[in-house]
Specification:
20% of the residues lie in helices and 30% in strands. With 240 residues, the chain is an alpha+beta fold. The strands form two sheets. Strands 1, 2, 3, 4, 5, 8, 9, 10 and 11 form a nine-stranded mixed sheet that branches. A two-stranded antiparallel ribbon has the order 6-7.
């Protein structure tokens, strides 16, 4: 049985690397005494499948993890209780918001996510300048950025991957960036904005938050697991 878990990553825990988040989950699932399926070989590991890696320092309102449970023990797990069971075992800022059983035949999260939505602070750019930069980015026919790929510097046009871009009422950038065929990082968007503003000073990220990840299922765009599945109650106790 495969269970999909939706969790947050906010506050100080945002400085935890993707690899360390995986270790946190291994430890928390073990403490929860769930019947997690293990890989074969000399060093068995829990069968966990993460979605797109979140850069260290970025927050998220919705990260995803698929976990395989052993059969037949897994069928006895009440998935609706997992948010309340797991959240107290995780560090502050990581809360399980939903959990649901999914079909094993579904594409992996790495393959399925087609776009991510972001909120980005840009402390080095005045609000009025942000509006100008957004207009110029959206009007551009191409936005070349330099990237390192296999030890070589290549130039890619990221304009087709900028699906939406605006300045929100609170002055933050709100953008939707495609993840396929090649994803665009928030910092690459800021680099492109600096270029269209002909600025010699690079733009640096402030607080960055991934608010949504989108997949297409049965012809409809949706989140990998909506908050309508199961919700976690407010958690006070935390793992030490």
């Amino acid at each position: 049985m495969r269970v999909r878990i939706r969790f947050t990553k906010r506050g100080k825990v945002r400085f935890t690397s993707h690899r360390d988040v995986a270790r946190i989950w291994e430890r928390s699932l073990r403490r929860a005494a769930l019947p997690i399926a293990l890989t074969e070989g000399f060093s068995p590991r829990p069968k966990m499948h993460f979605g797109l890696a979140l850069s260290t320092g970025h927050e998220s309102w919705g990260e995803y993890l698929d976990v395989d449970l052993r059969e037949p023990e897994g069928s006895d797990v009440d998935v609706a209780t997992l948010p309340a069971l797991l959240s107290p075992l995780l560090p502050a800022g990581m809360d399980v918001e939903a959990a649901a059983v999914i079909e094993r035949s579904l594409p992996s999260l790495q393959e399925a996510v087609i776009a991510c939505r972001w909120r980005i602070e840009v402390p080095g750019l005045a609000v009025a300048e942000r509006h100008v930069a957004v207009e110029r980015v959206l009007a551009a026919t191409e936005l070349p950025v330099s990237r390192e790929r296999k030890g070589k510097t290549v130039v890619d046009d990221i304009r087709p991957a900028i699906l939406e871009l605006a300045v929100s009422g609170d002055g933050l950038l709100e953008t939707e960036l495609a993840t396929q065929p090649r994803g665009v990082r928030p910092q690459e968007l800021l680099n492109a904005m600096a270029n269209v503003m002909a600025s010699d000073v690079p733009l640096e990220e402030g607080l960055v938050c991934r608010t949504h990840q989108w997949i297409v299922l049965d012809g409809a765009r949706r989140e990998p697991l909506s908050l309508d599945a199961t919700r976690a109650p407010h958690v006070h106790a935390r793992a030490s």
